[in-house]
Amino acid sequence: DKVKAAGDRVFLLPAMMSALNGRKVLKEHGMDPSYVTGLWTTSMWPEPWVALANAMNANDADKVEMIKHEIESVPGHSTEEIRKKYDFASYNAQVEHHASNSSGYLPGGFGPNRPPYRDLPEEWRAHIWNPERIKAWHAMVSKYTKTPVK
User: What's the number of CA atoms in the CB half-sphere (13 Å) around residue 128?
Assistant: First the structure.
């Protein structure tokens, strides 16, 4: 009902994979899925997300599925086990901080988190900083980047 009430007055900009679901919801309500005009991300590896947004806006369903599959095949900053064990909301700032620093986007990193956002379970930290995870993201980013990735 909220979606129908908004009509053509509101464009949606959901987070990452939610953008795909947003387009689906609009279609289910008989509305134009192009009202999802993009997506937002806090990822320091934005190139695959930009490619996904471009494929969505080009209505290239095959490319959307290919990119979605690639993104889902690379480990994110968490796992199902970690999410079950720890409350993400309690560690959101720490997780995003370590994920950003692990990307290598900013040489030297972003510096320390301010208190009280410094604790992060070692299991989670180890997952975020896993060299294989970082290598997989860099490989995918390289595929979608026009300039070389270090």
Answer: 23
pTM: 0.76
Residue from 100, 99, 93 nearest 119 by CA: 93
* Helix/strand number for the chain, H first, E second: 8, 0
Cα 85 vs. chain centroid, distance in angstroms?
Answer: 21
pLDDT by residue for the chain (150 residues), tens only, comes to 666 676 666 666 677 777 777 777 777 777 777 766 667 788 878 889 889 888 888 888 899 889 989 998 999 899 999 999 999 999 999 999 999 999 888 888 899 999 999 999 999 999 999 999 999 999 998 898 877 655
Task: Say what angle helices 131-144 and 47-57 make with each other, to 10 degrees.
Answer: 40
Say if residues 95 and 128 touch (Cβ distance below 8 Å). Answer: yes
DSSP per-residue letters across 94-143: HHHHHHHHHHTSSTT-S-PPPTTTT---HHHHHHHT-HHHHHHHHHHHHH
For 70, counting Cβ atoms within 10 Å of its Cβ (0-12 exposed, 13-18 middle, 19+ buried), the class is middle
CB 32 within 8 A of CB 128: no
